[in-house]
Design goal:
With about 850 residues, the protein is an alpha+beta fold. The chain contains 21 helices and 34 strands. A 5-stranded mixed β-sheet has the order 7-6-10-8-9, covered by helices on one side. α1 packs across α7, α17 packs antiparallel against α18 and α18 packs parallel to α21.
């Protein structure tokens, strides 16, 4: 159904392209344009994307439909999205091919072709869209720029490192000098702006322009020559700062003050790094207008080489030119990225800077997408890319394909096995070579019906055969031990629920193979088999094999009369349904099955599982009893041995599962109704005097929420056993509870002190109420009722059993004084709720007392 909607949607798009009225009339015969508005309103984002891929603006089309009703005219044709050949300007977009383009199946068809497609053709396009979703790939990024993603402070030079011997001394540097010998002295001497240090007893000494090693030797020799008996240990203390310029395509170009031991990379980090359009491979160091050296950061990133990372002098200029020629390397390489070219000119060299091929790469072939001299996109195939001397051009996109994860020349063992495996196929290899023993299988394997899944060339469609695995292992080399072909898969099923998951991929693939004139090779089995469902149609499969594949017949199966329903498509005008009756005990269980056959195994007539009833309380043999169909309560009482001497027969409680379910539904409806009435009453309250009624109702609602359904069936046990009342036919899930004799009479409801009283045959119900303190102000004395011990309800003033002495109250009875609904805003539902709560509570109490 989902595909039909999409087909109609695409057809609607195609119709929008027809420019003449004759074309439109012809098209309206195949698509109902009256549904166009509804389809526009319900268009999903995926459908809008398909419309755009076809070259049309769906919003414009739908706007025209809404304006013109159900008729499309030449003016209502959807606005066409500009669709030009894939052309790139080398001047404006020389390196634009940075990410691989996604392929949309609709993009290969013109709008006119879509309009002319049959529903089957459109369905195939939709199937490709749904079955092969495009995997979102991360966009390729230029290589190396993440080096500058950190904070600049993290890349300051290490000032605690030893001073290099070639460090050039300049104004601001401080010498730390320790004199020792006949006396000792520590000196800190700063180089002044004249490049000299004022050494005590030695006078000014010029050191600027010397490297550190030369300056140290000069000072040590002067001390030794001019101060007799003294020697010096000399190092540099605080270093001076220098100013350099970072210009060009730096992230933040400008002048920066840095340490005098800083290098080119230190300065780049301080300036924030290199912008997205700056070069990493041709960073220039200029001094007094002359090029001193160039820095290739790829040496640092790829090889850890810092030999060209020159130390800076005051006034140096670091110039970052725009990025040079680039190529994108994608796919199965170790480091996919966009790389800047310098000395690399061949495919082999480009793959080397990308880290080489990944282990999963298809090494025999790669693809280059390139903008040719005319500005059009072209594609080149490269053999053996890791060795290729093919020249690369600026803007090339090199993609190395992944190795196809399809094993060839193997056979597989899957399903209900301890260790799924695949083995190299050998000539004359058999099933017993793949499954060497039953020890390779999990517990409860289905030995009579393993599935041999075989691919047939050239389309690699599946063909299924049934293998009797037990016989194949018992009679190795026989016809049961089938010879395997390359790519065969043996699927072993088990008598477990996981079999449906194991079969599902196989069923889906068989369904996808279906086409006009070639139905899906699947069959179904329903009814009384162990595992009903859809199964693959094996070669020459019969009813008996399908039943074995489904786990065999269930215990209650009727083997004398099963049915195969078959759909015949021989008549192109009509679909015929045939029914074939199969006697599984006779020879026709070898009935050959066809595609889409449905086997229904019926249940044995009048078969049913054992029903049970639970008997509790004062009977001689309580317990759980199995009952047969039609068994009655009298029959049951004979089996349980009758009542004990302490049984309160009149108070027998009989419950039924289906009544409990019905009561629970009624309780739920009552809860919702009561809460709704309470909410309405809260809105109607206009004064504080009525708030007490709401409090009572809310308490009643809480009591109802905690009340559980009982499912009681009121019976007169003595009348049933004596034959005066109709016997009760027992059902599965029934429960019989016989409580011990009770001597009390309970008074509940709107009385001052609800409690139980010792039974007195001479007291009336009014006197029992008086013994509970009398009625409250909210009591309804005209609607008092009595719940008898057997669960029946009697109204004392209407029942006719009131004698001259008083009301006939018996042990176990409960007198209920209900709420006066007139005193609570005439909400009659409240009285109904309170009555239900009392009755269910009494029944539950009888169960609890056991």
């Amino acid at each position: 159904m989902k595909n039909l909607v999409k087909i109609g949607f695409l057809s609607l798009l195609g119709l929008s392209l027809l420019s003449s009225s004759n074309q439109l009339k012809a098209a309206e015969s195949s698509v109902d344009l009256s549904k166009a508005k509804q389809m526009c309103a319900n268009a999903t984002p995926q459908q809008r994307q398909m419309a755009k891929a076809a070259g049309y603006d769906l919003d414009s089309l739908c706007a025209q439909l809404n304006a013109n009703g159900n008729t499309l005219t030449e003016d209502s044709t959807a606005e066409k999205v500009t669709q030009l050949p894939e052309r790139r300007s080398r001047a404006d977009d020389k390196n634009s091919m940075l990410t691989e383009e996604r392929t949309n199946p609709l993009a290969f068809f013109t709008p006119e072709q879509i309009a002319a497609m049959t529903p089957d053709q459109l369905a195939k396009v939709l199937e490709q869209l749904e079955e092969e979703p495009v995997v979102e790939e991360e966009e390729l990024k230029p290589f190396g720029y993440e080096l500058f993603a950190g904070e600049p402070e993290s890349y300051q030079p290490n000032l605690n490192a030893p001073i290099p011997a070639n460090y050039v001394i300049g104004p601001g540097d401080i010498f730390e000098i320790q004199l020792f010998g006949k006396s000792s002295q520590n000196l800190s001497l700063q180089v002044d702006r004249n490049g000299q240090v004022a050494f005590p007893d030695l006078g000014p000494i010029t050191v600027a322009g010397l490297n550190f090693d030369e300056a140290r030797q000069l000072l040590k020799s002067r001390v030794k020559q001019q101060i007799i008996g003294m020697e010096a240990s000399i190092t540099l203390g605080e270093l001076r700062s220098i100013q350099v310029f970072v210009l060009g395509e730096a992230y933040r170009p400008g002048a920066y003050t840095i340490s005098s031991v800083s290098t080119m990379t230190n300065a780049l980090f301080v300036s924030g790094g290199i912008s997205d359009i700056g070069s990493l491979r041709n960073i220039q160091l200029k001094r007094q207008g002359k090029l001193v050296t160039t820095l290739d950061l790829y040496d640092l990133l790829l090889r850890g080489d810092t030999s060209n990372d020159a130390r800076l002098l005051p006034g140096d200029v670091i110039y970052v030119p725009p990025v040079g020629d680039t190529v994108a390397v994608d796919g199965a390489v170790k480091r996919p990225a966009i790389y800047e070219l310098r000395n690399e000119s061949t495919i082999k060299e480009v793959i080397q800077i990308a880290g080489g091929l990944a282990p999963t790469a298809f090494k025999n072939e790669a693809q280059i997408k390139r903008i040719d001299d005319s500005g059009f996109m072209t594609s080149l195939q490269v053999n053996q890319p890791q060795k290729s001397s093919v020249k690369v051009k600026a803007g090339d996109h090199l993609r190395v394909q992944q190795r196809v994860e399809v094993a060839r020349g193997v056979v597989k063992l899957t399903g209900h096995v301890l260790r799924p495996k695949q083995m190299a196929w050998q000539p004359n290899m058999r099933v017993s070579d793949l499954v060497y023993s039953l020890d390779a299988l999990k517990a409860l394997p289905q030995l009579k019906s393993a599935l041999l899944i075989r691919e047939t060339l050239p389309l690699r469609t599946l063909e299924i055969e049934v293998v009797q695995l037990d016989r194949a292992l018992q009679m190795k080399g026989s016809a049961f031990d089938k010879i395997l072909n390359p790519q065969d898969e043996l699927l072993v099923l088990g008598f477990t629920e996981e079999r449906s998951e194991q079969l599902q991929p196989l069923i889906e693939r068989l369904e996808k193979q279906a086409s006009a004139g070639n139905s899906a090779q699947v069959v179904s089995v329903s009814g009384l088999v162990r595992f009903p469902g859809v199964y693959p149609l094996a070669k020459e499969m019969n009813v008996h094999q399908l039943i074995e594949l489904a786990g065999g017949l269930a215990e209650s199966a009727y083997s004398l009369n099963s049915e195969v329903t078959r759909i015949s498509l021989k008549d192109p005008e009509h679909t015929q349904v045939e029914h074939h009756f199969i006697d599984l005990m006779a020879g026709n269980h070898q009935f050959k099955l066809q595609s889409r056959d449905v086997l229904n195994v019926r249940q044995r007539p009048e078969y049913r599982e054992f029903a049970t009833i639970e008997v509790k309380g004062e009977v001689k043999f309580p317990g759980i009893y199995r009952i047969k169909k039609g068994e009655t309560l009298r029959d049951l009482m004979k089996r349980v041995g009758g009542f004990t001497d302490f049984a309160h027969v009149e108070a027998t409680l009989f419950t039924r599962a289906e009544l409990k379910e019905r009561e629970e539904k009624q309780l739920q409806q009552l809860r919702q109704k009561l809460k709704s009435d309470i909410a309405n009453s809260q809105l109607e309250q206009s004064n504080v005097g009525k708030s007490a009624n709401l409090n009572s109702l809310e308490q009643l609602s809480e009591n109802l929420d905690t009340t559980e359904a009982l499912g009681r069936l009121v019976i007169d046990m003595k009348s049933v056993l004596s034959g005066k009342s109709e016997d009760v036919i027992l059902k599965d899930g029934d429960s019989l509870i016989v409580p011990a004799f009770r001597q009390e009479v309970s008074v509940v409801g709107e009385v001052q002190y609800p409690t139980s009283h010792l039974f007195d045959p001479y007291l009336t119900f009014e006197e029992y109420i008086e013994r509970s303190g009398g009625e409250t102000d909210k009591a309804d004395d005209e609607r008092i009722y009595i719940v008898k011990a057997d669960g029946s309800v009697v109204l004392p003033y209407r029942s006719g059993w009131v004698n001259a002495i008083g009301t006939d109250i018996e042990p176990g009875d409960t007198i209920v004084v209900p709420l006066d609904v007139n005193a609570t805003n005439d909400l009659a539902l409240w009285s109904q709720v309170s009555q239900i709560i009392y009755q269910l509570a009494l029944g539950a109490a009888a169960i609890t007392r056991l």
